[in-house]
TrEMBL record:
<dbReference type="InterPro" id="IPR001199">
    <property type="entry name" value="Cyt_B5-like_heme/steroid-bd"/>
</dbReference>
<dbReference type="InterPro" id="IPR036400">
    <property type="entry name" value="Cyt_B5-like_heme/steroid_sf"/>
</dbReference>
<dbReference type="Pfam" id="PF00173">
    <property type="entry name" value="Cyt-b5"/>
</dbReference>
<protein>
    <submittedName>
        <fullName>Cytochrome b5-like Heme/Steroid binding domain protein</fullName>
    </submittedName>
</protein>
<feature type="domain" description="Cytochrome b5 heme-binding">
    <location>
        <begin position="6"/>
        <end position="77"/>
    </location>
</feature>
């Protein structure tokens, strides 16, 4: 199966509200945070699902451990 790709416009549809899944992108990888309790409602520490959080996440000293185990759903292409 081919890997799913997302544009920023397509990613914007996955906001975690009204029954939509919550997806975030970090360093070109799109993650499904729908089942992560901290992302309930598509929000976490002032960040919103449906966005590229690359500029926010490098400040996190525990980036790799945070993303470990979160399902990867595709790649961000723009």
């Amino acid at each position: 199966m081919a890997e799913k790709t997302f544009t920023t416009t397509e990613l914007a549809e996955f906001d975690g509200r009204n029954g939509h899944p919550a997806y975030v992108a970090v360093k070109g990888v799109v993650y499904d945070v729908s089942n992560v309790p901290q992302w309930k409602g598509g929000k976490h520490h002032g960040n919103l699902a449906c966005r590229d959080l690359t500029s926010v996440m490098p400040r996190s000293i525990h980036l790799e451990s945070v993303l470990e185990g979160i399902p990867v759903v595709g790649k961000l292409v723009d």
